[in-house]
Amino acid sequence: MTDEWIVQTNDLVKKYGEHVALDSVNLSIKAGATGLLGPNGAGKSTLLKTILGLIALTSGGGKVLNHDIATEGAKIRQKIGYMPEYDCLTPDMPAIDQVRYSGELLGMNPFAATQRAHEVLEYVGLKDQRYRQISTFSTGMEQCTKLACALIHDPDLLICDEPTNGLDARSREFMLDTLFQIVKQGGRSIIMSSHLMDDVERICDRMLMIHKGQVIAQGRIEDLKAIDREIEISVWGGASKIEQKLKDMGQSVRRTGRIMRITRVDESTYGTIIEAAAETGVQIRKMEDYEPSLEDLFIVIMDRLGYSVKSSQDLLDGPTPAMDEAATKGRQIA
Amino acid sequence: MTEDDAFNLDDILEEPVEVAPKVPEKEAEFMGESGLSVTGKARMEAAYGTDEGEGQGVAIVAQSATADAGTIFHQVYRPWRGVLNPRWVRNWSILRHHVYGLFSKGHRPWPITSKLIIVLIFFGSMLPIFSLLFAVLTNIEFLMEFYGINRANLWGHVLGVFHNTCCWPLLTAVVVGGLISEDRQHGTSAIYFSRPVTRTDYTLMKYISAASILSLVIVISYCAYFAAGIVLNNEGWAFLLDTMIYFLGGLAAAILLVITFTSIGLCLSSLSTGRFFPAASFLGVIFGSRILAFLIKLLFERDTLYLLSPYDNLAHVGQWMMGLNPTYDFPVAWSFVVLLLMNAVSLYVLISRVNSLEVTRE
Predict the structure, then answer these.
(1) pLDDT of A25-54, one tens digit each?
(2) Do A153 and B84 touch (CB under 8 A)?
(3) Which among A52, A89, A119 is the nearest to B78, CB-wise?
(4) Is A64 within 8 Å of A6 (Cβ atoms)?
(5) Which residues in B have their CB inside 8 Å of a CB on A?
(6) Could you report the per-residue pLDDT of B3-39, keeping only the tens digit for each?
(7) Which spans in B275-331 are helix H?
(8) Do the chains contact at B186 and A88, CB–CB below 8 Å?
(9) CA separation for the pair B170, B97 (Å, rounded)
(10) B244: Cβ contacts below 8 Å, ≥ 6 apart
(11) What is the chain A residue with the closest CA to B182?
(12) What CA–CA distance (Å, rounded) separates A103 from A80?
């Protein structure tokens, strides 16, 4: 499955009355781990519901695991394991029964569901706690139980909505390790929605960023990071002089004391820096590529798209020149 | 042992250790990379020490190839290759979850108080049978008339004041109280709708679950009462044929009662979160409408307001079904139409509220 598309959509539009939740969304998600990023109200939940085949689309279409989103929702949900962000467990039930029941709701034979429930609860680290009532669980244990419910039928695609929400450091580590193993060891695909960029960066090799119902970036995280690559230098003896010189030479420079970051245009940027140092007589004590974090990338993309887009109604009314430029830049990034 | 056969430590150390046969490539990826795969044969050798294992002094132990020394908990993702059953199996599991929960662990956790109330009401509904048995054993004429099988008693068992006012509303309130509202409260609707369970299936199976539990008490006790009346009085086929039409009328009234109470109860359950409000409001609807109509009749001698009371509409329609003289002044058709309206409105609210249950957020 590694080279297959697991989700593909064509001009997907979903409107709630006048409000456009998804606006001409064209997605192509490959097997593997994909992070879903976006601010609140961006349309992440609507997109997840669309992938689950739960909502009627206004226009457009798509396929998830080779099943049509519009007509084969039940078949899609049989192949997907969904781990919701919010509470979805019955507090008075033991974990083993909750997981077994979630398997039965998928159509699993009760005996097979029971056996598998033991397996997945052991896998998520709740082997010794599986007969305890969920109401006695910590947040981390509840998250693990939700993950077990999602894994019971060994889904091809696991959708995790904020899987580390509310977890302490140790539980978060365990959850991320487990998700990582599901992808690497189990060979399954994950779409992970999270506000925590570090989590996404750790698990996912691809990402999908949506804003105001539009896909503004999608692809490999490494490739997307290239749009904001900088060279970091540490100088001695005349930081201001070299800063000015670099600016005069047309470079974009950010400076904090003796540390400077210069936007890397291409390979010639290194030569330009050395040339500037030679001309100003400044020592370069350290020079290295600065790789932006996903958070940096998110901010850069948002900056380029422009915060002038206030609502989906603005998009419907037709773009202003500034918005048009911002949207074009966003598309170029994508 | 000759010199050529001399003991050589290197030969032993370099001797290849026999490993269990390789598993198919697809499975191997879950078990590790070294090829030391987990098979039944390996497990048996490790457990019982077959001749192969003993001869070498090396145990072939089932293990994950990636396990580090000293690791106590090692995660191994195991695939599942079973078959998912069709829609009716999923729906059956919902029904089983709710109904079996009354009797055994591992299913819907009904509160102990709810179970106790249901058991008490069930035994309460069986009281006429015990009274009939007592009447037969003591042969007291008065008791025989009071508890014997006739159309008034059959009507009374389903729609009489004791059962219809005291027992069945309380039973319904306890059963439907948290059936949907708790899914909203705990967000468990996501467990249903993120799986191939449609909202129609969900609503239908919740409805059937509630109706089944009510029927277990109301309809079963009614049938048991009728059967006991025939058996205990040693009645023959002629009596059975004579009373069958009343019995069927009462059965239809009982089913109508179960349907109406389930519709109203689930409607109220879908409007709320938690168990208390739906239960209390159901009792309020049943008792409140009856008390209001009673007061209006007392003050103005008009009983049309009884049309607002589900209890009285059911009683009125039941009287007509069993050929009893009606105790209400308005036509039975009005009661029937109002009952249909009550069911329709309740179902409409129920469906629209179930449609509002969220998957991603609640």
Answers:
(1) 888 899 999 999 888 788 888 888 888 888
(2) yes
(3) A119
(4) yes
(5) 29-30, 73, 75-82, 84-87, 89-90, 93-94, 97, 105-109, 182, 186-198, 359-362
(6) 455 555 455 445 444 444 444 444 443 333 344 444 4
(7) 276-300, 310-321
(8) yes
(9) 22
(10) none
(11) A90
(12) 12
Query: What amino acid occupies position A115?
Result: Q
**Single-letter amino acid code for the residue at A60:** G
**What tokens appear for B181 in the block?**
């509202």
CA–CA distances in Å: residue B230 to residues A21, A154, B59, B65: 66, 56, 73, 72
Q: Amino acid identity of B119?
A: V
- DSSP one-letter string for A191-223: EEE-S-HHHHHHH-SEEEEEETTEEEEEEEHHH
Contact between A105 and B195 using a beta-carbon 8 Å cutoff: yes
Using an 8 Å CB-CB cutoff, list chain B residues near A130. none
Q: What is the pLDDT of residues B197-208, one digit of tens each?
A: 999 999 999 999
Residues of B within 8 A of A181 (CB-CB) are 75, 77
> What pLDDT score was predicted for residue B319?
92
pLDDT score for A104 = 95
DSSP state of B326: P
3-class secondary structure, A81: strand
Instruction: Choose, out of A45, A49, A52, A93, the residue to mutate when testing the contact with B (most B CBs < 10 Å).
Output: A93
What is the C-alpha to C-alpha distance for residues B191 and B170, in angstroms, rounded to an integer? 29
Residues of chain A in contact with residue B190, where contact means CB-CB under 8 angstroms, are 82, 84, 86, 88
Closest CB from A52, A80, A178 relative to B75: A178
Sign of the dihedral defined by the CA atoms of residues B56, B58, B59, B63, in that order: negative
Distance (Å, rounded) from C-alpha A284 to C-alpha A262? 13
